[in-house]
Each structure stands twice: as C-alpha cells, then as structure tokens.
Design a protein that fits this description.
single chain; Gyrase A, domain 2; Isoleucyl-tRNA Synthetase, Domain 1; RNA-binding
Length: 607
RNA sequence: GCGCCCGUAGCUCAGGGGAUAGAGCAUCGGUUUCCUAAACCGAGGGUCGCAGGUUCAAAUCCUGCCGGGCGUACCA
C-alpha cells in the first residue's frame, strides 16, 4: 500500500463537500519534514481558509475532526498557522508490517491496469568503444525497465543501436587502408576498436576545422590536407554502404557481430538486458515509403533540394531527407515509432537520451503526432552530460576525441580493483582491532569485489538527479563510503549476519510472521520507513527518476542503523521482542535487496 | 540572435510553494565486555547568483539582470 496516496484519498473525502477541486487540496498532504511533526502533514488548511474566508486554524481543526481516521491515524494535531500533523497508529503500523512480511513482493500489488512501455535506452554507436557517457542511458534505462516491470507493467526494452552511420564508414576505410590481417584473425573485436580509434585520430583535424575554421591554426597544412582526404574517403565509404554497394555491405555484415561483441560483454557484466536490438539499419528499407507518405500528407515538403518539415514559429525546419538523398535520424526515428506501434501497441514510449537532444525529440514527437500517433505518451527521459575537468579548471562535455574519454570497460575494471583493495584494507584494519573477519575463498572475494565495484559505479550515477550534469571524477565514481551502494550492501550483509549468527531461518518469519512490537523510537521509525517503500517506487516512476529510490534506500539504511545500534536482536530482553526484531531485520533486508535490484545492483551475503 | 537548462555549505550534490534549508565528502571531537567499525554519535560551516513581483507562506512560481552550459538546415 502506498501510504501517501492513501492519506491523500482520506483528505480528498474530507474536502469533497467543501470545495470544487478537492484533488488540489488532497495533494497538499506530504511526508512530514520533521519527525516532531508526526509522519505526514496536511498543508491544505491555510489555502482553504483563504478561499473560504475563515481562520486557517479553525478550518484545520474542523478538517481534522471530520477526517476518516480509518484505524490508521492517531487523532490529528493542528500546529503553527494551520498545519495538520498526522501520526500513524502504532498498532496499525504493526499490522501492516505483519502483512508485508507474509506477502510476496513486499505487499506491492501489481498496478491495475498495467500499461505497455517501450523503453529505448543505451543505444550506442556500435563501431566505437563505449565510454562513460554511455553509462547513464544504459543504467537509467535499465533501472526504469526493472522498476516498471516490478510495478506490474509490460516493458519492451529496445536497444536502438547506431549501426548504420559514419562510424561504419570509418571502419570500412580503416579496414581497407590499415587492417592488420594477423590481429583480425586472432582478435577481430580488438582490431575493430583499434581501427576505429586510428581513423578517429586521422579525421579529427578535418572535422574540428569544419566545425570551427579557426582551429586550422592548430595543424600543419600537410596534416590537414591528409586529414581532409581521409574524411572525404570515410564519407564516400559511408555513402557507398548506404547506396547498397555489395562489397561494403558484405564487410558491414562481417563487422557487426565483432563490434557488438565488444558492447555485449559490457552489458553482460552490467547485468543489463534487452528484449530487442533493432538498430538503425533495420529501418532503412522503410524510409523511402515513409518520406513519400509524409509528402503525400502534406506534412513534409521539398526545400532547397532537401525534404523538410516546417513548423510555424520554428526558426529552422526538420529535415527528413538531405539534398544528397540520405535519410536523417529523424526519419529513422519516425520509422521506429511506426514499427513499434504496429508491433507492440505501447501506451508509452520512453527515450533515455541525453539533454542535448531535447530539440530533436520535441520535433520528432511533434511530427509523430501530426502523422497520426497522437495518443501514445512519447517521453524524452533526458539526462545531464558527463563532463570532464580540464587542466585550466573549467569543465566541458566529453568529446569523442581519441584518448580523451574514459572507456567504460576500463572504468568497470578499475572499480572492481578498487573494491578488492578496499576489502583488503578493511580486513587488515579489522584484524588489527582484534575483530573477527569472515573467512572467504579467493573466488568469493573476487565475486564481492565485482558486486561492490560495479554497484558503486551504478549507484554513483543513479543517485544523482537525472537531469543534472556531473563532472566525471574517478574517486567519486568509485566511492564506497557515505551514500553509496557499498553502504547499502554492507547494511544488508550485517543484517544477514544476524540470521547466520542466530541460526534463524527467515522463511519462518515470512510464513507465520509475529506481530511486531514498536515501542522504541528506533523500531517505530524503521517500521514507518519500511512501509514507505511503495510510496518511493511510485514517486520514482512518476518522474522517471531513479534517484528517488536511492534517496529512499539511504533513509531506510539510516533508520536501520539507528535500530541496529540501539536494539539488540539476538540478545533482545524477551523472546517476543527477539521475534519482532528479527521480523524488522528480515523486512529491511528484503526491501534493501529489492530496492537495489530495481537499480540493477546486486547484493552479497558476506563481505 | 533565438530556444532550453543550470547557479544552494570549502568540494560534490539533494530539495523545486509551507514550520528552524538538507546529505555525502573534507575538517574537528567522541563511540567497541553487545548481532560485521566498509558502522555510529556530535561540532563548526549557507544573505539558496542579484534585483523586483505574485502569495497568508518563495530556495521553490513570474519578470528583468549577471554568470555558465547545451542546442540551433544536410553527423547521429
């Protein structure tokens, strides 16, 4: 049960007879911002009083008195200028926890009716190595997919690979001029990466000068000439591929699996999965007819040799075909929308793509609606850029210039190495203090390092507000103290340790849960926090913001720490209290594990 | 030029109409006869970029300004 929406419903009922727009006032029920004010607070009396031309405190008193407490709430208190402070009844909390313990899925019922979501995430360019910038789309998209599925929706995860662009022209050119036959035989995947980076460096000067002619001063005449020739050759290879050139097409078919293998290894490691990986190439056959259709319906029209969609008030049009006959990514995206609608009839389609593409999606969605897809929820789940700190102290977006990006594989390796080192350090510190240290096999240690290291990387990204940019920083990305996955994983481990030490089987607590006793503030606070899990998930999905889950887990872990430090479990004063506390522990473990799982982060039993 | 986003503690960032603005890191101090100290408790530190406005109530909404970023017809 989502406590907040439940309370809002109660207030909706209380306000219904008084005003015309009860929902507005019901929405003013919020979690209390200070524990002294109770668990929740209703802030509607003040504005209600204004409208009714009455005293705020009088309105609050009357509202409080008329509220259906439904066995859930203590008598509300009116405070300050007219806040209504709500406190959940302890016996009600206990009953809910008991229910939660016995229920599958922590008493979170699947939504009715479920919706069908297409989520488009990760979507890397296949020919180039993935770098930190790709992490966000991949991880945020995966988390949203997991969350929506858990809540009961149907999710189709589609990885819209960039498998048809200039980067393949680069590979074709690189293959034809620089290939190393031996390397190609022994490790084609690495050879693809090498060729990409090589050509990248080769054409970089020419591209930079095209962007900004002033950059020409950075290069010698000869270098620039060579670079321009290479760039022209790359473009010609791309054009030949797109025109159906047999040789290039055959090479493309050969390269694709090699390139994808590189990416797939990272997905496997990150435990990220897709239902489909239709790349851009998949949609190419549909583009001619699509543009004809846009022309026929008067949505697009020829302009300066290209075919463009104009929108009143917009300075520039959106091109769906370039003068040279090539189709644009808008065209491919439109084909994708049509294909998805015909195949899956989704209620919503989410695009987890960086903020810089905001305008593209605004225009794309506008055209799609004019084209007839006007009932589906099309949503750009935008996220901020990963920035790099320059030597002069300023920050700027990572450019895909050779050598300047942090490759994702290297980041993940580093994370795991650091986790292993951290573990060694911690173990040594514990031994020095004369503490017990879990005896772990080499293999187990490696497994822990993997889970902790990758968890750190994912959590560092997910706990930020999606829309903020952030400056990449190894230490921050791999941090393992404070509000991090490691903290959560450790809370889980300590929790499981109790069951191991006490030789208690949690299954018994679930099949026949005792009624918890919530007499201390620590136990009560933990109970409330546990019951707010559903609320946190709903909030996260409402804004498509995974950081609301991490914020919740952090609060939960803090509540658990307070409980852990103050309430002995195995040595509880009475058997009843022991059982009650074991139940709280088990629920906490389940919520942490589930919460992390929804973020794509794993747990271990010992560390 | 136009459009969108951002400016909150030393640093990194939450919060995006409600009570005394929060966290992590860093700094300083404390905690282990007790279930894993990768933990816990405490302290210092902020005119929420500036100026107006709306509101019973503004870090939050509106306008202007300053500073920064991104995007803006043939890369995706």
């Amino acid at each position: 049960m989502n406590l907040l929406t439940h309370l809002q419903r109660l207030f909706h009922g209380a306000v219904e007879g008084i005003v015309a727009d009860p929902a507005r006032y019901a929405a003013m029920v919020k979690p209390a911002q200070d524990a002294r004010f109770g668990d929740y607070q209703a802030n509607c009396a003040m504005s209600l009083a204004k409208q009714l031309r009455q005293k705020p405190r009088d309105v609050a008193e009357r509202l409080a008195a008329s509220l259906d407490l439904s066995g859930m709430l203590e008598k509300p208190e009116v405070a300050g200028p007219g806040f209504i402070n709500l406190r959940l009844r302890t016996d009600w909390l206990a009953a809910q926890l008991q229910r939660m313990a016995a229920a599958d899925r922590l008493a979170i019922e699947p939504v009715q009716p479920p919706r069908t979501y297409v989520i488009d995430y990760s979507s890397p360019n296949v020919a180039k190595p993935m770098h930190v910038g790709h992490l966000r789309s991949t991880i945020i998209g995966d988390a949203l997919a997991r969350l929506l599925r858990f809540l009961g929706h149907k999710v189709i995860a589609d990885n819209h690979l960039g498998d048809w662009g200039t980067q393949f022209g680069m590979l074709l050119y690189g293959y034809k001029h620089h290939r190393d036959e031996e390397a190609l035989r022994s490790d084609p995947v690495r050879e693809m990466v090498r060729l990409y980076l090589l050509v990248r460096r080769e054409i970089d000067p020419a591209e930079k000068v095209e962007e900004e002619p002033g950059n020409a001063k950075d290069y010698s005449e000869a270098d620039l000439t060579r670079s321009r020739e290479a760039l022209a050759a790359v473009r010609s290879e791309t054009a030949k591929l797109h025109a159906g050139d047999e040789e290039n097409l055959a090479l493309w078919r050969q390269f694709m699996p090699w390139c994808y293998a590189e990416i797939e290894a990272i997905y496997r490691r990150l435990d990220v999965h897709f239902d489909h990986t239709f790349g851009e190439s998949f949609y190419q056959p549909m583009l001619v007819g699509l543009v004809d259709d846009l022309l026929a319906r008067g949505i697009a029209r020829p302009s300066e040799g290209a075919i463009a969609v104009f929108v009143e008030g917009e300075e520039t049009p959106t091109l769906v075909r370039y003068r040279n006959g090539a189709y644009t990514y808008t065209t491919t995206d439109l084909a994708t929308i049509r294909y998805r609608m015909e195949q899956w009839h989704p209620d919503a389609s989410l695009y987890v793509v960086g903020t810089p593409q905001e305008m593209h999606f605004r225009r794309l969605f506008g055209i799609a609606r004019r084209w007839g897809y006007d009932t589906i929820e099309l949503e750009h789940i935008k996220f901020g850029s990963v920035l790099e700190r320059l030597p002069n102290g300023k920050t700027e977006m990572f450019r895909t210039r050779a050598g300047r990006v942090v490759e994702l594989g290297a980041l993940l390796d580093e994370a795991v190495v650091r986790a292993a080192q951290q573990y060694e350090q911690t173990r040594a510190d514990r031994l020095e203090r004369g503490e017990e240290v879990p005896q772990l096999s080499q293999q187990e240690e490696q497994q822990i390092a993997e889970v902790v290291g990758l968890g750190a990387v994912k959590y560092a990204d997910l706990c930020q507000n999606r829309t903020s940019d952030y400056v990449f920083d190894w230490d921050k990305m791999l941090a393992m103290d404070g509000n991090t996955a490691t903290y959560m994983q450790y809370a889980y481990v300590r929790n499981r340790g109790i069951f191991r030490r006490g030789n208690v089987d949690p299954a018994a607590l679930r099949s026949d849960p005792p009624r918890p006793i919530l007499d201390t503030p620590h136990e009560r606070a933990l109970a409330v926090q546990l019951l707010r899990f559903h609320e946190a998930l709903d909030a996260a999905v409402a804004d498509y913001k995974p950081n609301l889950i991490t914020a919740y887990l952090w609060d939960l872990s803090k509540a658990y720490s307070g409980f852990f430090d103050n309430c002995p479990v195995l040595k509880a004063p009475t058997p009843e209290l022991r059982q009650s506390r074991l139940l709280l522990c088990d629920l906490t473990a389940r919520v942490i594990q589930r919460g992390l799982d929804l973020l794509g982060i794993r747990t271990v039993e010992r560390m």
